[in-house]
Amino acid sequence: MTTNEKKPRRRSGCMTGIIIFIVLYIVSTILSGIWLNNMFSSSVSLDSETVYMLRMKGTVAEQGQEDNPFASMMGDVPGYQQEDIVGLDDLLHNIRMAKNDDRIKGIMLSEGELQMGFATAQALRNALLDFKESGKFLIAYAPSYSQLNYYVASVADSLYLNPTGTVNWNGLSANKMYFTRLLEKLGVRMQVVKVGTFKSAVEPYIRTDMSEADRQQTMQYVNGLWQELVAGVSQSRSIEEARLNEYADRYMGLQPADSMVSIGMVDRLIYSQEIDSILTRLVGTEDYNVIKTSQLAAVSEKNTSSKNKIAVFYAEGEITDTNGNGIVGLKTVRQLNKIRKDEDVKAVVLRVNSPGGSADASEQIWHAVQLLRESGKPVVVSMGDYAASGGYYISCGADYIYAQPGTLTGSIGIFGLIPDVSQLRSKLGLDMDGVKTNAHSDLETNAIYRGMNSEENAMMQQMVERGYDLFTRRCADGRHTSQDEIKKIGEGRVWLGKDALTLGLVDELGGMDEAVRKAAELAELDKYELTYYPDRKDFLTQLLEQLDSSSEEEKMISRIRERCSEARVLMLMHFPEIK
How far, in Å, CA of 211 to CA of 204, rounded? Predict the structure, then answer.
């Protein structure tokens, strides 16, 4: 009996020891990472005869993240996945450094699968074109090139491809998945209230194909983006635009690599081992050094110290009210208020890369921007890949707005989308009953589980129309025009940045550098420093996010449940997948 009682204790002690070991392993790994991070971040130096190796792989975000120096040690930790995020801010900083620092002899673009939007690609390409004015070399090599990566890499002096590689030059397409028939089978009917003929985000839930309005706007911006790609490659590679369209019709991604050389899309087919001899020749020595993106980003640019500051605020992602990983309304307002109260900040650049989101949060952020302007701090907006719907809402009140030609903006419209699951509830054998004190006390529940009646639907539609009236009024005031003029180009329609310029929705085509210079001009600053908001995520924050036990599916379900239960009116912009 005594012996039998001791056995489970041994097992318990063993299990406790294992748990303690795992905890100590994780803690020691984190502490080692902190030590390594501090050691490496403080020891980055730039040697002479250096080549900047711009690795075009991963996903581009507006802001870079601190490296996880212990990422390789975390490979066996359950739930941890290393995601390769590259900051556009780091890339632009590095290309500028490479142009101006004599220790850097040239740039090599490697790989060819960097995930980014069209406006981001244009910003990166323009920075490389500016770099070439230095006279330093710029070469590119990849096993294969995605279409957008080829557009960027085409500016290189020499463009190399693996002998078995491909250049995916095939044209663009935009497709949506429609769920209406599936929802009908499930017994779910989507109730829609909206303003805007072109506000197409609701169509996948109430139609089985594109409306003519959506087809028109989608075709316009897809054609516009393709024209930008063709014109850029034509200029860089000296290939007629008509020829490039012919090649796209042949679907070059399925053609042999040597055909890319014969038509002039690449210069040579080489294996990766030949890169060393090419760089040796270009640099002029075998003892050249290579610096990578994260290392060069840690090297500070030479600038004049000044008490005057220009705040660069990154607003990236979906706009939400109180939580999320994108533009959180309450948090953003607090940060903008902090900037407003900082007497050293003389101007603000608001970098917007957002497809929209909460109408309430958009209004709150718009108001915070107005308070910045009233305090004497000019606000200049720089638009990224998207600044649509709520993304345009928070931009429209700025003193000056920049967009890239390929930015998707506008989408001045509003909608509500509420599921009616009454038929599904009936199929499942679920009944509902209850009591209420007033006529519409159960509206939120009734809208979803029983379906809205005509009176409730009318009230929801009126709320959406009030939201649209406020949205167009904000745009009209910000752009110094009439509400009627805004409504003519509103209706939820999406515009490319180059079209938005013609329509008066933006002031000029350009990127972050132009926006910073304009902010300095408006604030009458000759000398200034840049300060950035929000702070970059350190590697420990990234680790904790990676170890979050909630799956992406669980988070999505939670968000849908939250929105449906509150029957909130959403102001969202959905873009079809562009390939």
Answer: 10
